[in-house]
Write a structure and sequence with these properties.
Length: about 450
């Protein structure tokens, strides 16, 4: 279960600080939302369901060309191309010049850490020569920016390559990583700290989200879940494998002394059949704006740790063998006691903390199912119904990140809601704008 707090923290809302006497923090400028795909294309689907909704952390400008991740010739060329950009992370914090500007590097900047060419060998060669005692900097191929016509051309694909690199000092690469970090800091650059980076322009935010999620996943999976042996990053950083041999003489699951010949590792189920690699995980999570049976009110809830007057939509994880619609109905009933009928998917949002996909829904109560009961799952401090006018007013002057000031015109004690790029805000905006009405729309 998850009474969703993240959307309220997702963005710094651009506004004039409140003059209501609130002691909350000043707010920063809000980046624009990403543009949805083909927003002006007329089609039967767009006429029936409306324009697609794009949320923050989506809208990447990169073509991931995932089928090229195993092509070491392509990756080698992409690594050193003059248009290639590298986004560095330390402890999952991205390199930047300021909170709203990522700083990308070129290959000569990171060569002392990664070497001449970590893609010089095929994946099969790397697996056969695997040595668990040697730390390899985690490098990710993110994709091609095809808007750059001066970028790398490979077969029919042209674009500027993008990579992400983890420079967190560790094991055998600690000294090289520390030297690189010191050099960057001497140039006035910094790694942005904080759990959520939400002041970035939309396209940079999407690149950051992809990189952070994959780096986090790689860092969390250094060992095979089946046999406990160390794993090797492959597929441009998008998969991990459990090699059958190790150049190190293993002592248990951790590499020991290096041997001249590879040592056979214990048998592992991941090396059999077709499921022989580890894929990144994505955890589906529902978040829902619940409308009363008469379409005049919206269900909102709050956690105890939130500042006064802050509310949001309800959310929670999808469980195994459960449809999205079933998860919406279950989570809302468990957290609030409210019983739902129809559930409609509105939009989705990547949430790289660490690997959620927020599935935004709009749902409507069944007649007689609107009684709020908090005794089932005590995750919420409070849940209540708000009429549409109260929601509209809060969307107009009462949105921000948790603990930050509302807009000019907000009256202390009135409802506060998540910032404009939170998917919760998008869902509430949709229902307040007539989503549950006579005209068909999504």
């Amino acid at each position: 279960m998850l009474p969703w707090s993240a959307p309220s923290e997702l963005r710094k809302y651009s506004s004039t600080p409140s003059t209501s006497g609130s002691t909350s923090k000043m707010t920063a400028e809000i980046p624009a939302l990403p543009e949805p795909a083909h927003p002006y294309l007329d089609s039967m689907l767009s006429r029936k369901f409306g324009k697609e909704v794009a949320n923050y952390f989506s809208g990447s400008p990169l073509n991931r060309v995932s089928f090229l991740r195993t092509d070491h010739t392509f990756l080698s060329a992409a690594l050193t191309h003059p248009t290639t950009s590298f986004l560095l992370f330390q402890n999952l914090n991205p390199l930047a010049t300021d909170p709203s500007t990522l700083h990308y590097l070129r290959f000569p900047d990171i060569q002392p850490l990664v070497g001449e060419n970590p893609y010089s060998k095929t994946e099969a060669q790397l697996v056969s020569e695997y040595n668990s005692t040697v730390s390899i900097p985690q490098l990710l191929f993110l994709g091609l920016d095809e808007r750059n016509k001066q970028g790398l051309t490979h077969a029919i694909y042209t674009g500027a390559p993008y990579f992400a690199l983890d420079v967190t000092p560790k094991a055998t690469i600690a000294s090289q990583a520390e030297s690189l970090i010191q050099n960057l800091q001497s140039r006035g650059l910094k790694f942005l700290e904080g759990r959520i980076q939400a002041a970035l322009p939309a396209q940079d935010a999407a690149i950051y989200a992809q990189a952070r999620a994959l780096l986090d996943w790689n860092a969390r999976n250094p060992f095979c879940a089946q046999c406990g042996q160390p794993t090797l990053s492959i597929n441009g950083g998008a998969k991990r494998t459990c090699p059958p041999k190790d150049m190190a003489k293993l002592k248990g699951a951790i590499g020991g002394n290096v041997g001249s010949e590879p040592t056979e590792r214990p048998d592992c189920a991941t090396r059999k059949g077709i499921s022989n690699v580890c894929f990144p995980r994505t955890d589906p999570t529902i978040i829902v704006a619940v409308v009363s049976s008469d379409s005049k009110r919206v269900l909102i809830g709050r956690q105890k740790r939130w500042p006064p007057y802050w509310y949001s939509t309800l959310a929670g994880f999808v469980e195994p063998a459960e449809s999205v619609e079933e998860a919406v109905r279950r989570e809302v009933w468990e957290e609030s006691g409210v019983k739902l009928g129809r559930v409609v998917i509105h939009s989705t949002q990547p949430w790289p903390y660490p690997a959620n996909l927020m599935i935004g829904a709009i749902a409507q109560c069944i007649p007689g199912g609107e009684e709020i009961v908090l005794k089932h799952d005590p995750e919420l401090e409070d849940a209540r119904w708000a009429d549409m006018d109260e929601i509209r007013e809060a969307l107009r002057v009462g949105t921000s990140a948790l603990g930050e000031s509302a807009q000019e015109g907000y009256k202390e004690g009135n409802l506060r809601l998540p910032a404009g790029t939170a998917i919760a805000n998008q869902l509430l905006t949709a229902v307040a704008g007539g989503f549950v009405g006579e005209a068909p729309k999504i």
